[in-house]
Amino acid sequence: MTPEEAKQQVVRGVDDRRVELAGLAQRLFSNPELGFQEEQASAWLCEFLKGYGFQVEPGICDLPTAFRAEYGRGQPTIAFLAEYDALPGLGHGCGHNLIAAAAVGAGVAMRGVVDSCGGRVLVVGTPSEEALGGKGL
Does pTM top 0.70 for this prediction? Predict the structure, then answer.
């Protein structure tokens, strides 16, 4: 598979799921959860990834709403970070609902490339980005 073919496969993978991804982003937007309280958001994102064959490990790093989802094996590894917390009194003013949907969408879209070329895709759920910076914990 050429790099251009891989790119086109990923673009098609996202485009084929655009309605589903937009619905996921809207569901997150309509149900904002503050940092470290993103129970619904984390569950919905994990469920989405499981539905596309990812092995999902919830509650990583002693953070109940963090997760790690993996598809494929070996190298290279491509990772996408999903943010999904909301701001107090404002909701998803920073667009974390969109960031989360984009991250899981990109991860799922990469599956075909991984199947053809090898490697693995990770999607890492990073809670409480607004308040405490969940990526660094």
Answer: yes
